[in-house]
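User: My instructor asked us to take a sequence, write out its structure as tokens, and then describe one feature of it. I'm not sure where to start. Here is the sequence I was given:
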Amino acid sequence: MGQLVQKPQNRAVQRLWRPGGTFVPWNGFAQVVLKTVGVALACLLPVVGVGWTFYHNGPGPNPVETLLYETGVWALRLLLLTLLVRPLWQALRLPGSFVWLRRTLGLAAFFYATLHLLVYFMFDLNLDLAAGWEDLTTRPFILVGMLAYLLLVPLALTSSMRWQQRLGRAWARLHRLVYGATLLGALHFLLLVKNPLATLEPWLYLGIWVGLMGVRSRF
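Assistant: Let's start with the prediction itself. The structure tokens for your sequence are:
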């Protein structure tokens, strides 16, 4: 019989405690923190690139459209990457947990989706609530995009380990909403383009989503 290991009482030490009764070595914990920070900084590169372009080349003829496109498309790309993490990690048989990577990419996607919504509301609508309601009720792609964002809100709010432990199995069921949010994001993009049959990009993202759903049951 193995020796029963008591859970430490110190709260700082408890953060390094695994539910199975083993310690996460400090160097392993530090590596996860450093990798998380590195991925988060990498996720900021697109918005930094847009700012750099605006600064050196000017905002262009339609800066609002540029900002809407960049923030929206990166939110969708990061959501797809979030869904890709698990099958790719397990297919490559990578060691360790991938939860930190999914959480970081998911929060980055929510960050870009929030920027997308703010740009639309502040610069496209000029904070006009009446115009926003009219768009919501008369333009299907706005409604679909808003539904996608609303699905992401509870996922971002409950993304921490504390919420995962508090919700238990319900946490996993709740976070399956990311599949629906990603699909709605791809449909939002498809519906807003003027000629969807001649535009490849939204179809590409939709196809990636379908492919990820196809391999989901295998992982």
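For the description part of your assignment, you could build on this observation: The CA atoms of residues 68 and 120 lie 7 Å apart. Try explaining in your own words what that tells you about the chain.
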